[in-house]
Amino acid sequence: MTAQTTRRPFRWSRLLIYATLILAAIFFLLPVYVLVITGFKSFEEVSLATMWNPPTSLSFASFQKAWSGSEAEGFRGLAGNFLNSVYLAVPATLLSAILGSINGYILSKWKFRGADTLFSLMLFGMFIPYQSVLIPLVQVLQQLTKITGPLVESIASIPVTPALSGLPGWLAGFVPAYGTLGGLILVHVIYGIPITTLIFRNYYTAVPTELVEAAKIDGASLLGIYRWVLFPISMPGFVVVLIWQFTSIWNDFLFGVIVTSRPSVQPVTVALNNLAGSYIVEWNVQMAGAFITALPTLLVYILLGRFFMRGLLAGSLKG
Amino acid sequence: MRRLTRDRLVSILLILPSVLCILIFVYGFIGFTVFSSLTKWNDLVPDFTPVGFTNYERLFENQRFQIDLSNTVTFTVLFLIATLVLGFVLAVLLDQRIKAEGLFRSIYLFPMAISFIVTGVVWRWLLAPGTEATGAAGVNLLLENLGLGFLKSGWYTDPDIGIKAVVIAATWQMAGYTMALYLAGLRAIPDELREAARVDGASEIQIYRHILIPLLQPITLSAIIILGHISLKIFDLVVAMTGPGTGFSTDVPALFMFDTTFRGNRFAQGSSIAVVLLLMVAVLVVPYLIYNARREVER
Q1: What average pLDDT does the segment A271-293 reach?
Q2: Does residue A55 have a pLDDT over 60?
Q3: pLDDT tens, A145-176?
Q4: Helices (H), B52-161
Q5: Stretch 135-154 of chain A: residues touching chain B, C-beta under 8 Å
Q6: Does A16 touch chain B (CB under 8 A)?
C-alpha cells in the first residue's frame, strides 16, 4: 500500500487546485483592491474609466473628505457618526455579554421545568425579520420618551465650564428614549439576548456539572458558584460573544435607521448609506466612506479571527 | 434544603428580565403587528377599526408585492445554490493539505465581518455599467480589458437581470460562511473512514459522493436554514446597492414594508407585509428549532 500516491494526487491536479483557490481569492479581494486604490487616488486622478489602474501618487483626499465632509458642497462627514457607532457598540456589546452569560448559566446549570422549551422560544427571536416588530417598537420607544424625555433635557442642560460644553449632551444621549443612542443600545441589548444566551449556554453545557455539584455541596450559593467557578473560566465565551455582538451592532442598519432620525445621532452605517445616496458626493468619497465604516470590524476580524469563526459556527445552533 | 429553594428563587429572578423582554419585544410585538394588520390604521393617526383581511387582499393584488415575491424566490434560490456550491468546492479544495490554508480561509471569510451597507455601496460601483460619457466602468471595464467584452452587461440597471445582480454581492459576502461550515464538517469526519474506503478501492470522487457528502447533510441543512432566512428578509444590501430598481426589478418585501410603513405611514398595510415576511421565515425556521431541541434531548 503506497500511501504516498493515494494521499498526494498528481502534480497537475495540485496545480489546478491552487489555481482555483487563487482565482477565488481574487474574486473576494477584488472589491478591496478597488476600495483601497480609489481611496488613495487624488481627485484629479479619480475617474470611472481608470478605476482599475493603481494610483500614481498617494493622496488621502478622499478619506479626508469622507471623514470630515465638505461644508462648501453641503454634506456631513462620517466622523461624528463613527464616534456614535463606538458609543453605541461598546456599551451595548458589554451589556449583552453580561446578560447572555447569566442566562446561559441558569439555562445550563440551573435548569427548571420547561427551561429547554423556554430556550427554544428565546431562540426564535434571533431569526425573526425585525420588520415584524418595528411598528410597536417605535410606539413603545415613543411612550418611553414621555417618561425619560425630561431626564434627557435636564442632563443636557447641566451647566458646565465651556471646556466641557459637549459633555452634558453626550451623557444625555445615553438615556434610553426614541431617537437617542441610549434607545438604540436598549434595542440591541434586547434583541441580542437570543444569540448571546445561545453561545453561553453551549459554552457552559460543556463545563462538567460535577464542578457545580461539588461547589453546591461545599455550600456555595448560585451567585457564588457563578462568581468563583464559572466566571473565571468564561473568558473564551466572553471573547466570542463580545466579538459577535460588536460586529453585528456595528454593522446594523435597520434598527439605526428606525430608532435614530437625527443625522447627528445616527450610527455610521446609516450615515454611509445617506452619503452614498447623495448625488453631490463623488463615488471615490463614497468608497473611502465604505472603507472607514468597514475598518473597525475588519480589524477585529484580522486580530481575533479565530474567535470570530467560533461565533459564526455557534450561530448555526450546533450545540 | 432551604438554601436550594433560595437559589431556585434567585435563578428565576435572574432570568426573569430576559424572559420578559423576549416575551414583550418579540412575541408581544409580533402579536401587535398581527393585530394592526387587521385594522384600518393606514394613516398617521392610529385607527384600530377591524377590517378583517382587507389589507392582505389588497397586498396580494398589489403588483409591486407580486414582483417582490417572485424576486424573493429568484434571489433565495440563486443565492442558496451559489453559496452552497462555492462554499462546498472551496472547503473540499482547502481540505487537500493546502499550503497557506489559513490565509486562503481568512480571505474567503473576511466579507462576513463587513456590513451589508458597505458591501452594497462597493458593489453598486463595481456593477455600475457606466454611461455614454464615462464609457464602460467597474466590472464591465475589467471584462473589456480582459478581452471578455461580450460578457458586459447592464447588471442591476437591466430590469431583466435586476435582483440576480444583487445575488453576486450577497454571494461574495456569504460564501465564506458555507465554506467555514463545510470545512469544520469535513475536519470532524475521522480520517480512518476515508482510509478504509481507499483500502476498499474507492476513488476520491466516490469517497466524496458516497461517504462525505451524505455525512455533511446536517451541515447543508443548517446552511440552508441560516442563509435561507437571511435571504428571505434581505434588506440592507438592497437598500445600499440598488433600491427598488427600475420597475421594482430589485425590490424585496422587507424594503416594500419599510417604504409602506415609514415613508408612506400606511401602518396596517405595512404590518401585513411584515406578517407575510414573518410567516415565510417561520415556515423555514420553526421546524428546524424543534428538530434541534429534540436532537439535544436525545443526546
Answers
A1: 89
A2: yes
A3: 999 988 888 888 888 888 888 888 888 889 99
A4: 54-61, 63-94, 101-109, 116-126, 138-145
A5: 135-137, 140
A6: no
Region at A194 (left for phi over 0; alpha for psi -120 to 50; beta for the rest): alpha
Separation CA A263–CA A122 (nearest Å): 33
Pairwise CA distance, residues B59 & B38, whole Å: 12
Residue of A31, A198, A183, A32 lying closest to A104 (CA atoms): A198
Tell me, what's the pLDDT at A1? Answer: 40
At residue B140, the pLDDT reads: 85
C-alpha distance from B291 to closest chain A C-alpha (Å): 10
Q: Residue A279 is placed in which grid cell?
A: 448625488
Q: What is the mean pLDDT of chain B?
A: 91
Question: How many beta-carbon pairs below 8 A join chains A and B?
Answer: 267
pLDDT value of position A7: 53
ipTM entry: 0.92
A279-292 as b/e, with b when 16 or more CB fall inside 10 Å?
A: eebebbbbbbbbbb
Of B135 and A186, the structure prediction assigns the larger pLDDT to A186
Identify which of B18, B93, B292 has the shortest CB distance to residue A99. Answer: B18
Phi, psi of A158 (to 5 degrees): -65, 125
- pLDDT digit string (tens) for B228-287? 999 999 999 999 999 999 999 999 999 999 999 999 999 999 999 999 999 999 999 999
Domains of chain B listed by start with CATH number: 16-298 (1.10.3720.10)
CATH topology for A77-268+294-314?
A: MetI-like fold (1.10.3720)
Judging contacts by C-beta atoms under 8 Å, the chain A residues touching residue B109 are: 301, 305, 308-309, 312
Q: Where are the domains of chain A?
A: 10-59, 77-268+294-314
Chain B positions touching A29 (Cβ under 8 A) are 107
Task: Specify the DSSP class assigned to residue A76.
Answer: E
Determine contact: A35 vs chain B, CB below 8 A: yes
List chain B residues with CB under 8 Å of A48. Answer: 128, 130, 134-135, 137-138, 141
For chain A, what percent of residues have pLDDT higher than 70? Answer: 95
B-contacting residues of A 53-112, CB under 8 Å?
99, 102-103, 106-107, 110, 112
